[in-house]
Amino acid sequence: EHEWWNTIGQLREGSQQELVVKKNFGRDGQNTLAHIAQRHGLYFNAYNKGKTLVFSKVPLPDYRADLDERHGSSQNEIKMSNETERRVENLLSRAQSNNNASASTSTVSMRQSLPSTSTAVAESTTYVDKQKLSFQLRDMQRSKKMMPSARSMQSFREKLPAFKAREEFLKAVAANQVLVISGETGCGKTTQLPQFILEEEIDNLRGADCSIICTQPRRISAISVAARVGSERGEELGETVGYQIRLESKRSTQTRLLFCTTGVLLRKLVQEPDLVGVSHLLVDEIHERGMNEDFLIIILRDLLPRRPDLRLVLMSATINAELFSKYFGDAPIMHIPVL
């Protein structure tokens, strides 16, 4: 019985990010496993109608293309003998009986448990520093919004079709690892969608951990879009919004939204294959099928299983939206119409 539980404990202590168990223990068993994950300071989620269970050190999305039974999984999977499976099932049954007798554990959710506070206490210094930065970014954002120029820009933004889809978009990003956005030119997806994510993260005091990259197919568009977004936020270019192209960049330690060319991101992937520290990645004009763009899409699909916390948004013209959705395991499509 200790074999399986020790494996979960090793996940917390070791360098491995997650463990995948392909075994259906039923709804009650999943509830019990969610409780175990919580006690270990881990996240837990069930996929494929409960047939694939995942323990992870990072938050898990509702859907994982790499765990879809139609695509197969390359994750580290727990192999259990028949005898071990029988012991685990017996242990789950006993644990469930204990849970039913205790009201404090009867409401454990099967969807996703939160880690215990001991994890945050262990890194209290870093946590305090991040909280301080998050408050600074939020206060700065609020003060910038009160400026007359920002208010004028805000009235313009509210007239864009993309602005009307703001709440729906943010909910879709939070619920899905991959999201495909389709919209005609002029709907505002290029300037507004990255800005929505930035505002949401900063307003909710997640600014310190927020790092958004938005790719553009051309250097001039990376610069001009960054300048426009910075202007809408009432900032100088290089504050929370910046850009990076070949041999030139405008950014600072405060920069949380970076516009760059596809080539710059590919070079970053060579140096950092897992894009550690990047929280959101938006690929704009993905329907422009160049060699760099196609190569980037291939790399990103391989990257997502290793970074389940990364959110990927693909922005395309309406003609190719379904193509990219199917490539990423039938990722949801959100359409922004031009009014």
TrEMBL record:
Name of the protein this chain belongs to: RNA helicase
Pfam families noted in UniProt: DEAD (PF00270)
Entry keywords, A to Z: ATP-binding, Helicase, Hydrolase, Nucleotide-binding
InterPro entries linked to this entry: DEAD/DEAH_box_helicase_dom (IPR011545), DNA/RNA_helicase_DEAH_CS (IPR002464), Helicase_ATP-bd (IPR014001), P-loop_NTPase (IPR027417)
Transmembrane segments: none
ATP-binding as UniProt keyword: yes
Catalysis performed (reactions): ATP + H2O = ADP + phosphate + H(+)
Isomerase listed as a keyword: no
Start-end of Low complexity biased regions: 95-109
Coiled coil: none
Residue span of region Disordered: 67-86, 95-116
Name of the top EC class for this enzyme: hydrolase
Ranges of residues in domain Helicase ATP-binding: 170-337
Organism: Aegilops tauschii subsp. strangulata (Goatgrass)
GO cellular component terms, semicolon-separated: nucleus
Organism domain of life: Eukaryota
Molecular function terms, GO-annotated: ATP binding; hydrolase activity; RNA binding; RNA helicase activity
Enzyme Commission (EC) number: 3.6.4.13
Gene3D superfamilies per UniProt: P-loop containing nucleotide triphosphate hydrolases
CDD domains (UniProt xref): DEXHc_RHA-like (cd17917)
